[in-house]
Amino acid sequence: MQEYTFDGTDEYYLDPELKSIVNIALAMEKPLLLTGEAGTGKTQLALQVASALKMKSYIMRCKSTIKGEEACYTQDTVLRLNDARFGPADTGRVVDRFYDYVIWGPIGQAFRADEKVMLLLDEIDKTESDVQDNLLDILEECQFTIREVNETIKARIRPAIFITSNAKRELSDPFLRRCYCHHIAFPSPEDMRQIVDLHYPKTNAKLLEAAIAIFYELRERGFEKPPATSELLNWIGALERTGGIPDPKLPPLTGILLKRAGDIQRYRSKGGAGGRSY
Fold first, then answer.
1. Phi, psi at residue 138, to the nearest 5°?
2. Rounded to an integer, what distance in angstroms lies between the CA atom of residue 18 and that of residue 20?
3. N or C end: fewer C-beta atoms under 10 angstroms in the chain?
């Protein structure tokens, strides 16, 4: 069995604790559940692991309406009925062949792959608890049954499974027991400097220090959606384009950092940038 080791990339800062849990999850072939507030790099980590280890990625973007079966497969019954009525023309489909009308979901695609792939279940906390429970055995056993034909699809090669959660809803204890878990805490200013340096290695030192100071000051104000790492990176990129050092009393382009209307209004009402940087 090939061993996979992730050492970080030029685009992702990997602290020692996170590196350890990622690599033990890969070695033990256990699902890795990553929690933390939005913008801390949970999804990006999975994608960077896949890229560095040359794995194809299959992503399940979770939402409240999704069903566990949809993540595995669906049958295009409308297309099948249409073909039965009018004929499949030159498509090569045969109405009596069930699999000609199967649409494989991200789990189904990952389990049917002939090589090691990355399966990412993004924002699993958006799903209902019964969906999470339905996924328990599927993820643990890496197989599921197609009810219509009573056939089992089992992974030829167990995928690397990463799961993210913004902790909007508690996950069940059985689900948590089946995962290795890691909470990605929001970066300290020191860690943030290293993250920014990966993306903007030539940034003016004074611009960087001023931007980080303003960023963390804004985060401490208790906004509904405090600016996250992605907002800071976008802001610094914009500041580099405009040139100049941001003034802490009147920072420019703060609309890149604050996104909610209520937060923007609150910022303006307390002095902020006087409404001119939006």
1. -60, -45
2. 5
3. N
Position 257 pLDDT exceeds 50: yes
Instruction: State the Cα–Cα distance between residues 162 and 146, nearest whole angstrom.
Output: 24
Return the half-sphere exposure (C-beta side, CA atoms, 13 A cut-off) of residue 168.
15
- d(C-alpha 273, C-alpha 253), whole Å: 9
3-state secondary structure of 217: helix
Which token pair is 187?
A: 């970066």
Give the CA angle between residues 222, 223, 228 to the nearest 5°. Answer: 100
Rounded Cα distance between 235 and 227, Å, is: 10
Paired tokens of 31: 């699902």
Burial (CB count within 10 angstroms: exposed 0-12, middle 13-18, buried 19+), residue 209? middle
Structure token digits, residue 47:
């994608």
User: Does the structure show a pLDDT above 80 at 59?
Assistant: yes
Q: Which residues span the domain enclosing 229?
A: 189-269
* Identity of the amino acid at 14: L
Domain boundary residue, one of 162, 183, 204: 183
pTM, two decimals, is 0.84
State which amino acid sits at residue 22: V
Residue 192, class by beta-carbon neighbours within 10 Å (0-12 exposed, 13-18 middle, 19+ buried)? Answer: buried
Q: Do residues 239 and 203 share a domain?
A: yes
Strands 151-154 and 117-122: unpaired
Strand partners, 58: 119
Q: Are 176 and 198 members of one domain?
A: no
Is the pLDDT reported for residue 56 higher than 50? yes
Residue 217, Cα to own-chain centre: how many angstroms? 27
* Same domain as 114, residue 61: yes
